[in-house]
């Protein structure tokens, strides 16, 4: 029991500090989080509960019926920039990200 207390509690404390640091990193903007993740060793994916932490960190604060925050995206051809706010008051809009193949 003393061995567990001697080694287990410090290991648990280090794990909690690393877990907290990873969660704080998940709260950062995507570019910052990406830089952090690129330096993380692969074993970390086995040690930390990434999906539940990610879902909590990125859940947002919008409520049903609130307008979405404004953003701008380039069109598929890259020739124009379209803002979400330019569609307000018109028909409902669906944003699709990813491949269409």
Give the tally of β-strands.
2
| Gyration radius from CA atoms, angstroms | 21 Å
State the separation between the terminal residues, measured CA to CA.
Answer: 59 Å
Helix content: 40-55%
Beta-strand portion reads 5-15%
Q: What would the principal axes of the Cα set say about the shape?
A: elongated
Given helix and strand content, the structural type is mainly alpha
- Low-pLDDT stretches are none
Q: Provide the residue-averaged pLDDT.
A: 87
Spatial strand arrangement across the major sheet: 1-2
Instruction: Compute the number of helices.
Output: 4
Q: How is the main sheet built?
A: 2 strands, antiparallel
Order of helices and strands: HHHHEE
How would you sum up this structure, described in words?
The protein is mostly helical and 101 residues long. The chain has helices at 2-26, 30-38, 44-47, 50-57, and strands spanning 72-74, 81-83. The chain has a two-stranded antiparallel ribbon. The longest helix is centred in the first third of the chain and has 25 residues, at 2-26. The N and C termini lie far apart (59 Å).
Task: Record keyword descriptors for this entry.
single chain, 101 residues, mainly alpha, two-stranded antiparallel ribbon, 4 helices, elongated
Write the layout of secondary structure elements.
Layout: H1 2-26, H2 30-38, H3 44-47, H4 50-57, E1 72-74, E2 81-83
Antiparallel strand pairs: 1-2
Would you summarize the structure shown here?
With 101 residues, this protein is mostly helical. 46% of the residues lie in helices and 6% in strands. The chain is built from four helices and two strands.
């Amino acid at each position: 029991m003393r061995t567990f207390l001697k080694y287990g509690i410090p290991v648990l404390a280090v794990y909690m500090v690393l877990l907290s640091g990873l969660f704080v990193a998940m709260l950062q903007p995507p570019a910052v989080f990406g830089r952090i993740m690129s330096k993380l060793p692969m074993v970390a994916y086995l040690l930390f509960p990434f999906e539940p932490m990610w879902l909590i960190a990125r859940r947002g604060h919008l409520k049903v019926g609130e307008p979405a925050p404004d953003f701008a995206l380039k069109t598929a051809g890259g020739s124009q920039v379209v803002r979400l706010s330019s569609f307000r008051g018109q028909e409902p809009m669906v944003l699709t990200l990813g491949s269409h193949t």
